[in-house]
Amino acid sequence: MTFVQLIDCKTSRFDEMNRLMDTWVEQTKGKRTASHSIIGKDRSDDSHFIEIVEFPSYEDAMRNSNLPETDRVFREMVALCDEMPTFTDLEIVRDEQLYKDTCRGFFETIAVKGDLPPLDGFLAENYHDHDPANDPDNIGMDAMRREIEMWRGGFDFEFTIDDQLAEGDRVCNRWTWNATHSGEFMGIPASNKQVTMTGTTIHRCREDGKIVEGWWQYDRLGLMGQLEALEM
To answer: Any one Gene Ontology biological process term (predicted)?
Structure first.
């Protein structure tokens, strides 16, 4: 689960503090576990600064804290502060940008050529998939892999994400699917036809960004028409 640490300090020697941070980054290259950091200045107090440091997990943050370079820099930072800095440790319980990135990565990954890569970086093990074409729903990683492999066996395809909207733990993905009918699909022999389909998928994500549930709506009737598989 993503972990964030807020470092709140007051200093009249920010330029020196900034140089110290640059030195620390250089000295810990290849060992530092922080994934992102920003520093903000209080608009009402030029001596008040807050650094926001993001880590992939609490454990990664602790490994970073235990580096000898971190201990040395901390002591030098305290010497530059007007008063003792304070630290606030935060477990992230909602990150809409993380959820959007996970969903986009999922669509990109299931469309890659060759063997289907592992999906455990995107889907929870107990993932629940709602697709109006499937009864019952696909539940679990293995069931979802079989569903994806069925589509991959019939088509070479790619997704274009036309829109992404995130609110709370849900991401709405509006997409366009372009494909070549390169293999048998639902009993229809390969035709090498170029086909396209539009649809929307709503994903529900948990705190670590993994997708736990999905709801699909797409123009399957239009796809079958393009494959000339509809009887009048």
So the answer is: polyketide metabolic process
171 part of a folded domain: yes
| Cβ 17 vs Cβ 11: under 8 Å | yes
The reply to whether 65 falls in a domain is yes
Does 181 lie in the same domain as 79?
no
Does 62 share its domain with 153? no
**In angstroms, rounded to a whole number, what is the distance separating the alpha carbons of residues 190 and 185?**
7
222 lies in the same domain as 113: yes
Residue-wise pLDDT tens digits, 74-96: 899 999 999 999 999 988 777 88
Domain holding 157, by residue range, is 96-226
| 113 and 57 in a common domain | no
- pLDDT digit string, tens, across residues 109-153: 999 999 999 999 999 999 999 999 998 999 999 999 999 999 999
Query: What is the C-alpha to C-alpha distance for residues 59 and 179, in angstroms, rounded to an integer?
Result: 43
CB atoms within 10 A of CB 17: 19
